[in-house]
Inverse folding.
């Protein structure tokens, strides 16, 4: 097989706590990752000698995580072939829903299969963390309890829930959020069992700061909070609301102040199902 097309799913952080600053300058966190059925699509054709990709206007080639992932796999394994990659972009860029990280993970999984480089999921996750803290969750391909910088993952079962996701019309600087003196960096550690008992008590440490610095985020959260308890995902800009079947989902989405998406929670990544990974 030389040609393969795969979906590349997004994720939500159902909560996000910063529990301390590390000696290396990074922060320890706790979170629950929920995969959702908002997909980019990646097509891979290895009947090419070089690596190439259709270019997005919003992403410089030097910053393209897809090419970085492919080159990292080449360097790690010594593989000398190439691939032509086509990306169909549906996941909003800069939304905190992991689009770039998912693309990188899908690339590692796909090329590991097509190039027959034989790495395990654990080995691929070890490569993925070099590209971004969210890449390993997409290598795992299951919902997970996360600790460390997001790379310490334990697969968990989550209830089947649907979500409305809004993408405010702004681009949030993660670096700017982390630089704010008012950011809470010492939230007491919790457990997945405690989260399950009372999930509404777990929030997102970036949410108040994002609302203060970006009025579009505050507007989107205020809108969704009319219908339940909304949250910021990751460092934003996307916000989300768990919804129930009896709610008028169409009306909520049509009257939203910005781009809206209706998403189902996934139990497993379709990438892994398609590639036959366990």
């Amino acid at each position: 097989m030389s040609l393969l097309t795969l979906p590349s799913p997004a994720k939500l952080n159902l909560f996000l706590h910063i529990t301390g600053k590390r000696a290396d300058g990074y922060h320890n966190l706790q979170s629950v990752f929920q995969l959702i059925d908002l997909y980019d699509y990646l097509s891979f054709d290895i009947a090419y000698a070089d690596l190439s990709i259709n270019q997005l206007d919003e992403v410089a080639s030097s910053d393209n995580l897809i090419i970085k992932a492919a080159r990292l796999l080449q360097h790690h394994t010594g593989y000398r072939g190439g691939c032509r990659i086509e990306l169909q972009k549906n996941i909003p860029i800069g939304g905190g829903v992991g689009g770039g990280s998912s693309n990188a993970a899908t690339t590692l999984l796909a090329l590991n299969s097509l190039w027959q480089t034989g790495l395990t999921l654990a080995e691929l996750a070890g490569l993925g963390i070099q590209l971004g803290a969210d890449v390993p969750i997409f290598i795992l391909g299951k919902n997970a309890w996360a600790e460390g910088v997001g790379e310490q993952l334990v697969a968990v079962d989550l209830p089947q829930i649907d979500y409305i996701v809004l993408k405010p019309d702004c681009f949030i600087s993660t670096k700017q959020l982390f630089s704010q003196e008012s950011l809470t960096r010492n939230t007491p550690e919790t457990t997945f069992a405690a989260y399950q008992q009372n999930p509404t008590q777990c929030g997102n440490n970036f949410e108040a700061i994002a609302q203060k610095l970006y009025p579009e985020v505050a507007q989107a959260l205020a809108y969704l909070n009319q219908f339940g308890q909304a949250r910021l995902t990751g460092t934003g800009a996307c916000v989300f609301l768990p919804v129930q079947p009896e709610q008028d989902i169409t009306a909520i989405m049509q009257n939203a102040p910005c781009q809206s998406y209706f998403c189902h929670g996934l139990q497993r990544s379709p990438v892994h199902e398609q590639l036959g990974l366990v």
